[in-house]
Protein: DNA-directed DNA polymerase
Organism: Sporosarcina jeotgali
Amino acid sequence: MSYQAFYRVYRPQTFHEMSGQQHVKQTLQNALLHNKTTHAYLFSGPRGTGKTSAAKIFAKALNCENGPAKEPCNECETCRTITEGSNTDVIEFDAASNSRVEEMRDIIEKVRYAPASSKYKVYIIDEVHMLSNSAFNALLKTLEEPPAHAVFILATTEPHKLPLTIISRCQRFDFKPITAAEIVERMTHVLKDADIEADASALKVIAQAASGGMRDALSMLDQVVSFSGDRVTAEEALLVTGSVGEDIFLQLAEALLTKDAGAALTLLNQLIAEGKDVSRLAEDLITFFRDLLLLRTAPDLTDLLEVISGDERFVALAQAFEPDTLYAYIDILGVTQQEMRFSNHAKVYIESALLKMVQTRGTSNSGTGGAAASPELEQKIAALERIVAELQQQLANGGGPAAQAGEKTPALRKNSSNNARAYKIPTGKVHQVLSAATKQDIQVIREEWARMMQTMQRSHSALLEETEPVAASDSAFVLKFKYEIHCLMASENASLRSGLAEALRQQTGKAYDVVYVPEEGWLKVREDFIRKSGVSKQQSQPEGNSAAGGEPTDASVFDEPPAFLEGAELTQEDPIVSEAEKLFGKEFITVHDE
């Protein structure tokens, strides 16, 4: 007879032989004993946890000539033929390769026929989530009201892909991952029956690599036995499964403890050179630091350790790490494991993770991995703590000095804030524009202003929205801002200044120099210019009146009001004009003086 794999030879034939799944076994056995079996079952759970085995055992117990019984006898003709797979009344159907509606209709057509030699006709549909929607729809009515002699057992690893109408018509049993202890126990039984010796540490390595799947564990055990021969050792199990040994974990943890980045990276590259999978390394490291955290916080729970033993070396190592440091390591590796899934450079990610772990000072910070605080930051924190302590002491003593300092603080803060963001008005440039300003120049600017604004970038025109040209000469003009902060922002924005100059050149054919002034500052500068140039005198003295000696005053008296004053008259707010501008826009309003 040809060689058969362990997972086929040692497939459980009774509920007692099944590892784990106590809730499933007890429920099914009680239903068999009290004759309360139903017509449809759904077995869901991870791969290799016993779903198909439990279905076949249940089919045998249901059809056993001595039953229905709590356990099949495995001696009667019905039990033997079901075990061998030759019983025509127990039909195993692979939905992965027979997913079309035609195959399902064939089952539905035959289900009405009575069983040939058994009490019940049992349909075991494996990987049922692979059926098409049409196949599910065809199965639906039969699954709800099958003949009295028919029982359906649906098995799947992905129950979320099943229609709710199917799930609601079945008794659902969720199979759980098998624990490492149960896997080791089963492997020990298999090796004893096969007369093969094995180290306990080797079986533990295989159980950890199986990740809760008994079939995976027996397959790896089969492979390790083929590699090693009559005795299975931990080194051989590590080599075949690709896991990391305790000594490597110990060396790597010591390198992290001493902040030796070179040693840590050397060990990592050694593991990768030996063929270790990088994603598996990240997973093993997370489990390792989880074990250290367990030893650090609950040293009595050594039975829960997964990749290391609870000997003195690891107990001492766990005590050398602060819990916050271990939490930070797990956070870093967890984030790295997620990032590696979407990258072709997984090695770079795990190397970066090791360097972060070397630099970690013991503060767990999700997302950042608890990066080390700089000495300067620590000094600032210490200084702030001292200041807070002093203030608390002053408040406790009555708050005298603190209260006085509190009274001065708002004013100082306000002044410093204003000085920091105050706009310095270029008074000289403003006076220069005013001295040469004409009415015709300001009208040219104002007539083209609205069209010019439409040609500028949206962000620039938004900043200039509440502005107004107030005085202009042949080569420059003064632009008044309603808010000082907008004036400051515009003056510091080189892109806006160049864009405004270019837009004006295109509209007027001249390259103007723009002087920015906030509204409050413009009023003060204008008053100062009027006072210095004597315009107020000219307006206050009667016509023909002269200074001492009967002669007119000097050049400080103008023959006519300066252009900027005439322009200022245009800017005086008239309620009718303001309302018209709100309704129709400034560009459509022209004011005529009657």
Notes: The domain at 180-241 is CATH 1.10.8.60 (Helicase, Ruva Protein; domain 3). The first strand starts at residue 40 and ends at 44. Residues 363-372, 400-420, 536-560, 566-572 have pLDDT under 50 and may be disordered. Strands lie at 40-44, 90-94, 121-126, 150-156, 171-174, 197-198, 231-232, 467-472, 476-481, 513-518.
